[in-house]
Amino acid sequence: MSHQDQQVERLTFFSDAVFAIAMTLLVIDIKVPEPAVSTDEAWVQALANLIPHFVGFVLTFYVVGALWAAHHRTFGRLRHYDPAIVWPNLTLLMLVAFIPFPTALMSTHFTDRVPQMFYAFTLLVAGLCQYRLVKRTLRPPYLYDDVTTDDVAVAIRRSLGMPCMAALAIVIAIWWPGLSNLPLMVTPFFVMLLARMKKAPAIVVPQDQP
User: Residue 37 falls within a domain, yes or no?
Assistant: First the structure.
């Protein structure tokens, strides 16, 4: 294994570890309920009170998972090590490691404006960091030979999905905090839509015949 391969592999392994730890920490916020009385009704109510935490866990798990999937696809196209991607990658990992906190804040105050906006804003910044990393990473001559310009264009478009939906969630949270997570829930479908978009073909204007 060459030195270049080792550097790319080490960076990938380190990133995967941060993603895995952040996704695992999300469940820590879900505390085991302790109802005052041990009746079926009390247990059902206690579990019902945890629904916002369950929603926050599932939503953020898939959000962080989507960030990891994009990161995995991006680094899978990288043949040579580029020192310029180290700090953009670390910045993204810092946001990923931070995400469990706004998730806990949002889950605890599910219908409050500021916690919802703070959560969406964190995902917006994380999405923009991912976009920057994708653009910085997918550049020749660091890519495999079979990576086309169309592949790069699709990856860059896909990376815009999360920041767009997070920005929409911030706007919705201003008036309807309880509904602000809906755009984030449909982010995978929006990303697929962006991936299928193609540039319009160039229009060739026929020249007048003499």
Answer: no
